[in-house]
């Protein structure tokens, strides 16, 4: 039985209707479009890469994502409840506040200084801010509580008010306001402002789910291919082997053929995220071309030969399964546009 490969490709379809309306953009995606000429689409109701990945491991859409639980790597400290508290920059408008930047250029000394300032203020409330990786901060709570939040990736470029975290036992908006006032007084932020850099004027609290264990059915996830935090987190949560993203899809197919264990394989292709978030249509198109040539074309050959089965999760609520294997003749047939999916 061939292994099933699921490609997770955020921002493949989501921005296209807006770009067509605003810029008259028509994507050139011949290989994707061929695969989608005859397909079955299932509704996952998952928006964003983190939510799509954890849903594929068995987490229900109603549950808080356990990102902090699996992202935090300091095993010497085991907080009762851990929440991501990532440094961000927000722009204040007349009626809204927009989260515009994730701050990713701090030195460790700068991060430690800000964390120390936060802890001096919040220690009386039993809250402790923790620094793991330089750009990945956490908040440790003295006891577990029901916590609902929105993933950071789904708030970038949006008004934060509809997405603020909440729980029955804590006023998170008040906590966030206190954090913002402290950050405003930070000497590091004053230096960044003078240098023309975006200040750290808020933290985004999210990913506080607890106790998740991936489902292990008849066809568990055995391998994850990809680079970056998404890949490490989902491999750790799914207790599966982690491999860096290879140069092309041929290497993935060969690995599947030679792998002794049967099971699903996740391939995380997040190259479209940054161009989409910055509305860089030219870069988005170039990245799509690369994905088609390097990954989709080789995977189509494996699909045609019966070596693999294939799904494409666009991380916007759709998971697409090609029903007919395209042939070269499909190049001469006008394919379905991604805009119509």
The global form is globular
Overall number of structural domains: 2
| Radius of gyration, whole Å | 22 Å
Number of strands: 12
The CATH superfamily of the largest domain is known as: Alkaline Phosphatase, subunit A
- CATH C-level class of the largest domain is Alpha Beta
Helix content: 25-40%
The average pLDDT is 88
Largest sheet: 7 strands, mixed
Strand order of the largest sheet: 2-12-11-1-10-8-9
Question: Which fold name corresponds to the CATH topology of the largest domain?
Answer: Alkaline Phosphatase, subunit A
Structural class label: alpha/beta
Separation of termini? 30 Å
Q: What's the SSE pattern?
A: EHHEHHEEHEEHHEEHEHEHHEE
CATH architectural type of the largest domain:
3-Layer(aba) Sandwich
How much of the residues is beta strand, in percent? 15-25%
Q: Ranges with pLDDT <50 over ≥5 residues?
A: none
Number of helices: 11
């Amino acid at each position: 039985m061939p292994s099933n490969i699921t490609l997770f490709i955020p921002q493949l379809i989501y921005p296209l209707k807006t770009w067509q309306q605003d810029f008259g953009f028509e994507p050139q995606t011949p290989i994707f479009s061929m695969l989608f000429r005859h397909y079955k689409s299932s509704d996952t109701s998952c928006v964003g890469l983190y939510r799509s990945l954890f849903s594929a491991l068995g987490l229900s859409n109603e549950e808080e994502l356990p990102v902090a639980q699996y992202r935090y790597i300091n095993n010497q400290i085991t907080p009762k409840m851990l929440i991501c508290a990532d440094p961000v920059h927000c722009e204040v408008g007349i009626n809204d506040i927009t989260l515009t930047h994730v701050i990713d250029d701090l030195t460790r000394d700068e991060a430690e200084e800000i964390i120390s300032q936060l802890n001096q203020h919040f220690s009386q409330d039993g809250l402790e801010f923790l620094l793991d990786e330089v750009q990945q901060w956490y908040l440790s709570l003295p006891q577990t509580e029901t916590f609902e939040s929105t993933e950071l990736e789904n708030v970038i470029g949006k008004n934060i008010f509809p997405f603020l975290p909440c729980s029955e036992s804590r006023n998170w908006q008040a906590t966030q306001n206190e954090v913002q006032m402290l950050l405003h007084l930070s000497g590091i932020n004053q230096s960044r402002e003078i240098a023309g850099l975006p200040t750290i004027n808020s933290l985004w609290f999210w990913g506080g789910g607890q106790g998740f264990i991936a489902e292990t059915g008849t066809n568990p996830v055995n391998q994850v291919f990809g680079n970056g935090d998404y890949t490490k987190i989902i491999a750790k949560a799914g207790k599966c082997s982690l491999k860096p993203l290879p140069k092309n899809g041929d290497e993935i197919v060969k690995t599947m053929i030679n792998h002794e264990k049967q099971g699903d394989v996740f391939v995380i292709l997040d190259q479209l995220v940054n161009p989409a978030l910055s509305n860089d249509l030219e870069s988005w198109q170039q990245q799509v071309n690369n994905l088609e040539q390097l990954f989709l074309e080789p995977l189509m050959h494996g699909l045609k030969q019966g070596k693999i089965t294939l799904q494409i999760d666009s991380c916007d609520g759709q998971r697409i399964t090609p029903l007919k294997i395209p042939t070269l003749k499909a190049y001469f047939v006008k394919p379905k546009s991604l805009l119509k999916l």
